Amino acid sequence: MPTDDHVVYVLECDDGSLYTGYTTDLERRVEEHNAGTGAKYTRGRTPVRVVHRERYGDRSTAMAREYEIKQLRRPQKERLVDLES
To answer: What is the pLDDT of residues 4-63, one digit of tens each?
Structure first.
């Protein structure tokens, strides 16, 4: 039975930039970003906050969606984030 353990997320960094990532444990991953041990991009841009998340049942679908979001231009990402607000 598939689970929704695979999460694609968008963070808003302290400088207003957006970062997209993939994880199986969103809470832990956000803590890593805020501790400076997450992605190199988010170091020095903390604190970060989750502004969008999508759950998937398998890794490959989630990774494909992460790539898709990363290809979006800033205005498109902002519209995606606005949908959740």
So the answer is: 799 999 999 999 999 999 999 999 999 999 999 999 999 999 999 999 999 999 999 999
User: Which pLDDT tens digit goes with each residue over 52-64?
Assistant: 999 999 999 999 9
pTM of this structure: 0.91
Number of domains composing the chain: 1
What is the chain's length? 85
How far is it, in rounded angstroms, from Cα 51 to Cα 83? 10
- Would residue 1 count as lying in a domain? no
Residue with tokens 């519209």: 79
Residue span of the structural domain in which 15 resides:
6-84
Provide the total of helices (H) and of strands (E) in the chain, helices listed first: 3, 3
